[in-house]
Amino acid sequence: MDITDVYAFPSPQQPGFLVLVLNVFPNAEPAALFSDAVDYRFRLRPVTLSHGTAAAFAVGEKEYVFSFRFAGPVEHQAGSPLAQEGTCTASTGQSVSFRVNDEQGGQAHGLRAFAGRRMDPFFFDGVRAAQTLMTRQLAFVSVGDSRQYRQNVLSIVVELDIATTFGADTGPLFAVVGETMIPGPITVRLERFGRPLMKSVVLGAKDFDTVNRDLDIRDLYNQEDPYNLGPTYLGAYRARMNANLGFWDGLDHKIDWPPDAHGTHPLTELLLADFMVIDVSKPYAEDSYFEIERALLKGADHQTCGGRSLNDDAADTIVTTLVNAGNGARISDGVDQQAVRAARTFPYLVPPELNPPAKIELSLDKSG
Predict the structure, then answer these.
(1) Which helix (H) or strand (E) holds 119?
(2) Are 30 and 3 in contact, with CB atoms under 8 Å apart?
(3) Phi, psi values for residue 20, rounded to 5°
(4) Residues 6 or more apart from 153 whose CB is under 8 A from it?
(5) What span, in angstroms and rounded, lies between the C-alpha atoms of 40 and 97?
(6) In the predicted model, is pLDDT for residue 368 greater than 60?
């Protein structure tokens, strides 16, 4: 159920198609399968740009949902590996079934789906990010160490025809989140994921937050509807973000994000709405994470599709944005890609590593 990452990008080779990826189960072993008690889903809503006193996105009410449910695993023959069937159901009415780990996936009109074990595409030197928090100075080196190197995850992929799904009068900007839910008469949100490194880098540290220093707010944040945050803990979220974003901004010994008269960091309200934004009218771009948001902050027009591709070095983009707002050299964590770059064709993620390195516990978990 543990979400490791979410990705959203136009298909590199099929114009007019959007690809969504939800990865779960870090360090997945060969026998790992999906839970039959969980609804794994993507939620998309159209958004518009808001250039008011605080740059933000206005989220529409219409919602598109792609829900993945899995049957309990079965043994078709004595001694054979367990097999598992899954179904992707779209809120627009399409439905497609598939067998887990079948690279062809399942296909219906305007919709294709895959689920199975693949190599984790994420890369980031999380240990040196933790050292940065502890030493209060940038600790990244020229050659970093990603603890996700050649590790595997369980991946869910949906490829959809934009025109068939959204129609001609919606968009082109959409917010994207991934969630794991316990379905039933009363649904329970287990985890949600919008932008990468939000819960670890932006919300994780407690020492800088003088208001909520004893409170780990990430579990509370996980249970919130990203499109409609409840009022109860909004003050706590804002205090944590203002404190931690201020810390990252000060690491280069200059202030690129001056807070307002109330101590609010310029990124707080934007990041509080924790979803990725993608422009489905623009073509695939490999390194376009956060470009739409950065253009919005500058009052300029964005040039790329935004979202996040599987090969995008989003971690460097995040750290650079937080530390110097793009006003200085790009900051690198010393890890530029996973061991094998993701493919440009369905199901996009590369096959699982057969002999992954021994697992080592992270000092700073990468979830969120």
Answers:
(1) strand 111-119
(2) no
(3) -120, 135
(4) 4, 5, 23, 24, 25, 26, 27, 28, 117, 118, 119, 120
(5) 14
(6) no
Residues 6 or more apart in contact with residue 116 via CB below 8 angstroms: 100, 101, 102, 103, 154, 155, 347
The amino acid occupying position 179 is E
Residue 3, H or E segment: strand 3-10
> Does pLDDT of 360 surpass 70?
no
The pLDDT of 307-315, averaged and rounded, is: 98
**In which residue are the tokens 């595409």 written?**
121
* pLDDT single digits (tens) 250-301: 999 999 999 999 999 999 999 999 999 999 999 999 999 999 999 999 999 9
As beta bridge partners, residue 88 has: 68, 96
User: Cα(2)–Cα(340) distance, rounded to whole angstroms?
Assistant: 23
Q: Are the CB atoms for 333 and 315 separated by under 8 Å?
A: yes
Alpha-carbon distance 153 to 237, whole Å?
29
| Per-residue CA distances from 284 to 10, 194, 239, 281, 319 (Å) | 5, 19, 36, 10, 23
Over residues 207-259, the pLDDT tens digits come to 999 999 999 999 999 999 999 999 999 999 999 999 999 999 999 999 999 99
H or E element, residue 175: strand 173-182
Structure tokens at 21: 């990826």
